[in-house]
Amino acid sequence: EASVGRERFDAFARRYLETFRFGAVTTEGFLAFTERELPGVLAKVNAREWTEGESLPANAPSIRSSRLEAIEALGTMAPETPLSPTELNLWLERLPRPMPADFLATLDARFALTKTDNLEVKVAWLELAIRSGYEPVLAEVERVLSTVGRMKYLLPLYTALGARPETRPLAKRIFEAAAPGYHNIARAVVKRRLDSLADD
Q1: Distance CA 59, CA 68 (A)
Q2: What's the rounded Cα separation, in Å, for the pair 87 and 116?
């Protein structure tokens, strides 16, 4: 997009999706398609470095976001104005662990984090609270782990519980009760994680 402009890139993306939807494409197929649709662009962006290199190429665009910069600038200051769920999630994930209990209580009162229906925000919040030893969330942690089966939510919460000696028995108790409802892979991964944390 940076090399050919937004209008040409959007047209390219539409043709790409029309051509390969419901199918698969190899790297070679992608490169041949791109050369046909945007002649010369692969050489211009040094495609070989992108497809065969070991890290992000030197010519990778630098992406800036004023909203992300504003979230980063908050640091450990509680936001005064509402944030979108994505912004709130990013901010929660950036907070150091542990955080003081009074800070967490203020956050929960201001944003109703323990009660939110947004699982992305809720799990980020609960993971932060567990790692901070903030016990008022433990009943909600148990409810989530007993009703949600997606590994992307289970693993951070069980990891946080299992990492603290004070909450490790709770993690084991919840897992024993909830595990029969988890997918076999999720059950095995979580069990392995809890076992490894118990050995620490």
Answers
A1: 22
A2: 15
Backbone φ, ψ for residue 87 (5° rounding): -65, -45
**pLDDT at residue 200 tops 80:** no
CA dihedral angle for residue 167, residue 168, residue 170, residue 172, rounded to 10 degrees: 170
| pLDDT tens digit sequence for 86-112 | 999 999 999 999 999 999 999 999 999
Entry pTM = 0.74
Tally the C-alpha atoms within 13 A of residue 136's C-alpha that lie toward its C-beta.
13
Residue type, 77: M
